[in-house]
Specification:
Blueprint (H helix, E strand, L loop, with lengths): L1 E2 L2 E17 L6 E17 L4 H26 L10 H30 L5 H30 L4 E2 L7 H8 L2
Bound molecules: zinc ion.
Amino acid sequence: MRIPYGATFTASAALPVVDTHTCPHCQAATPMRVVAGAEGSATAFLWIGMKSALARAERNAEKNAASLGKSQIALARCPACNLRSAPAVTRFHLVTVAVALLILGVFGAGVVWATGLESILALALPILGGLIGALFLGGFLLGRRATLRASDAAVAIGAPEGGAAAATASAQG
Ligand SMILES: [Zn+2]
């Protein structure tokens, strides 16, 4: 994507992530694996350092995939008792609410500011801002729900064939 003051690179990465899932319900500690896909971006301001910006975008994508994989494993159902970790789910929802409030605050402030303009923009800008804000918020919430769903793709390492974890893995492709 070209921007007026430089070039922004976006890279995507799909990494196998391995982490230990610790269940607060049955205390089972299970090594689990999930393939996490994420994007990362970096900007070369004034088109200086394009190569390193591309490398940075790739590193950011890998970093994002690694941390996404870890949170997916933390959110996954326990292979032993099939329950999700309540604290992990609560933390996940708290982050979702915090970021959603931030988005609402930023766009809300923009809409209030635009309403004070003394022109036709006072009508058009708040409506436009509200629409863009709603799209942005909707996209974010859908992405969070997808992350929670994708946590079901995490499988226990060495899970026996035909077990609950193996069934989940084949259902996910
Ligand atoms: Zn458990």
